[in-house]
Known about the structure:
By secondary structure, the protein is mainly alpha-helical. The protein has two domains: 11-165, Tetracycline Repressor, domain 2 (Orthogonal Bundle), CATH 1.10.357; 166-298. The protein is 72% helix and 0% strand. The protein contains 14 helices and no strands. The model has no long low-confidence stretch (mean pLDDT 92). It is a multi-pass membrane protein. Its EC number is 2.5.1.141.
Amino acid sequence: MDQTQPLPADWRDLFALTKPRVMSLVVFTGLCGLLAAPGSVHPVLGFTAVLCIALGAGAAGALNQWYEHDLDAKMKRTAGRPLPSGRLSRQTALHFGVGLSVFSVILMDLAANHLAAGILALSILFYVLVYTVWLKRRTAQNIVIGGAAGAFPPLIGWAAVTGDVTTLPILLFAIIFLWTPPHFWALSLFVRTDYANAGVPMLPVVAGITSTRRQIALYTFPMIAAAIAPWPLGLTGWVYGAASVVLNAVFLLLSSAVLANRAAEPAGMGPEKRLFAYSILYLFALFGALVVDRWVLA
């Protein structure tokens, strides 16, 4: 048992456990899945469903930090988090994460339906047990398989309205699933020393920079296919189709620049950092276009 007394903490430390930056993208894609779904939902119930997605994502983040407190302490970018800095105890993080998980799933079940609640529970368990506990410390493919955890929100939002899952939400899941490796590997190229020091087998650590750049480019192609597919399949209109073509063309150009980069070390605003920054904008814009398409052409 850890005998170290934690330093004084406040609500901001509990909030930090939820990984709010990551949560913002999760909440947005979940909201877009809800707004793009056919039919309608009462605004209060819709808000509650999105809140549950946020709480579930926050719970997964807290449990991730509870389990990875030792890794976080070894990496510069995470050493200031509440657990490695000593502001919170591991027990507090565990209770907070489990409590938030249970509450979010039960509330989703009451506000929406069993399917939405079940997918929310699956997403939390997948992130904690499959990605955090099983994959992250064992394989360089951790983010490839584990990326599914962040791809569930549009499915949850859609199911909260319709009570089912059809082709379009499955494609939305596939977009995020395939987007995660190039997005995350672009970032990991800049923090691979941190991962190496912590013993985490991220792709740049075990395969090197050149191989990682190649994988980023390779994953771009199936991502683009999944992102454009809803338009020719007749699942969306021209608004989404046009936006998707433009956004994916830019993504392809940036990933090609990463592949062509021969610099020994990523530095400054090089191709990798530009791709990482754009990848965040890309997902917000793509899912935003989906909602605009749904409401403009409704």
